[in-house]
Design brief:
Keywords: Aminotransferase, Pyridoxal phosphate, Transferase. The protein is α/β, with parallel strands linked by helices and about 400 residues long. The chain has helices at about 20-30, 50-60, 65-70, 80-85, 105-115, 130-140, 155-165, 185-195, 255-270, 275-285, 290-315, 340-350, 380-399, and strands at about 35, 100-105, 125, 145-150, 150, 155, 170-175, 205, 230-235, 250-255, 320, 330-335, 350-355, 355, 370-375. The chain binds 4'-deoxy-4'-aminopyridoxal-5'-phosphate. 4'-deoxy-4'-aminopyridoxal-5'-phosphate binds near residues 40, 106, 131, 207 and 239.
């Protein structure tokens, strides 16, 4: 294995870089015999491939083709920005064209926000557990995350209010079908979070990529709705509803703050890829797109149910979990405690991958948790995967 040349004079922040365990697990799950509950991948057989193919052909034969292949504005192409504004889960008129920025996935929104706000050592508030990609973006810039306690309705308001009194720079929340916990904040809890934020100068980063993937009832409006528009940045994504490979997401916020994000994005990548933006603008203009999203809900709901039912039947007493109302993940806890990373080793031996929950927590916490993805496997694979998990648990308990 080549090692990094010790002669490199890295920036101090490089010391905080560590590879995500998820990426490492994903490298070993390419074996065809392995069932993966590990990644956060949408089902590729549900991609709107034919529609995108037809739109791409039309686009490249149209008068827009040169623009679609040319450099563009950092803010994003106007046609896509106006589609984003139409679809945004906020009352019409909340944001104008100057309140939206097209980003390279919502992950770039996290990176830009971190760059604009985090100085080394700054405190940022996150949920327990928290999305690993956000932790990576924030800690790379030197943020010190404080993990706030949460229950099945979201972050605990008293703990949030107490932490806000320290005036941390940022509060990062994924209130709708969180990755990894699946939790969707109740309307009441959203209101309590807004109340806690009133009068605070901590900026809310609301990350909302799973909003349209609901399986029981549509989620309440974003926490940011009704907040002072100067006090939040809202991030959305087309990775889960269209395709992640286009790498298109967006940020919504106050024009002055979006302007700063635009400048940070100029320095990062000039603009999001033009071809992907043009293609997505056309896709969003298709009436068939909403049918496609409804089709995703219809396809993922029975997968969620199949995983829930198989776990109940095979591992009822050994794991505890709450059935998620949307998103892509079921979050489970080992009923008798233990280390899910060790269980993963047994599971890989049985041909099943999942993500042990430790890395969504503060160092050393949450070892008894695991994240199971249900969007990428069909019902039969979900059942077989749970059977393998059951065998792995028998070995693990016996070990
Ligand atoms: N936020 C959350 C909570 C996510 O789960 C993901 C995808 N794993 C992202 C952001 C990034 O999504 P993308 O960059 O593909 O839009």
């Amino acid at each position: 294995m080549p090692t990094v040349d010790p002669g490199y004079r890295f920036a101090a922040r490089v010391a905080s870089l560590k590879s995500s365990a998820i990426r490492e697990i994903l490298q070993v799950v390419n074996r065809p015999d392995v069932i993966s509950f590990a990644g956060g991948l949408p089902a590729p057989e549900l991609f709107p491939t034919e529609l995108l193919g037809a739109l791409a052909r039309d686009l490249l034969q149209s008068r827009e083709a040169p623009q679609a292949l040319q450099y563009g504005e950092t803010e994003g192409i106007p046609a896509l920005r106006s589609r984003i504004l139409q679809r945004a889960p906020f009352p019409p008129g909340t944001f104008g064209e100057d309140g939206v920025l097209v980003t390279q996935g919502s992950q770039q929104g996290l990176d830009l926000a971190a760059k604009l706000f985090v100085d080394p050592g700054d405190e940022v508030l996150v949920e327990t557990p928290a999305y690993v990609g956000a932790l990576q973006a924030l800690t790379f810039l030197g943020a010190r995350p404080t993990f706030l306690p949460c229950d099945g309705e979201g972050v605990l308001p008293d703990a949030l209010a107490a932490a806000l009194r320290r005036r941390p720079k940022l509060l990062y929340l994924t209130p709708t079908f969180q990755n990894p916990s699946g939790v969707c904040y109740s309307a009441r809890r959203r209101a309590e979070v807004r109340e806690a934020l009133a009068g605070s100068d901590t900026l809310l980063l609301e990350d909302d990529p799973y909003r349209e993937l609901w399986y029981d009832t549509a989620p309440p409006p974003p926490v940011a709705e009704g907040l002072d528009p100067a006090r939040f940045l809202y991030m959305g994504s087309f990775s889960k509803t269209a395709v992640p490979g286009l790498r298109v997401g967006f940020m919504l916020g106050a024009p002055a703050l979006v302007r700063k994000c635009v400048m940070a994005k100029q320095a990062a990548d000039l603009h999001t890829n033009s071809l992907g933006q043009h293609l997505l603008a056309r896709l969003l203009a298709e009436p068939a797109f909403d049918d496609h999203v409804a089709g995703l809900r219809r396809a993922y709901r029975p997968r969620r149910d199949a995983l829930d039912a198989a776990l109940t039947a095979r591992l009822g007493g050994q794991l505890s979990w709450a059935r998620p109302g949307g998103g892509m993940f079921l979050w489970a806890r080992l009923a008798g405690g233990g280390d899910a990373a060790e269980l993963l080793r047994m599971a890989l031996g049985e041909g099943l991958a999942f993500v042990p929950g430790g890395e969504f927590h503060a160092e050393g916490e949450g070892r008894d948790t695991l994240r199971l993805n249900f969007s990428h496997s069909n019902e039969a694979k979900l059942q077989e995967g749970v059977e393998r998990l059951g065998r792995a648990m028998e070995k693990w308990r016996g070990a």
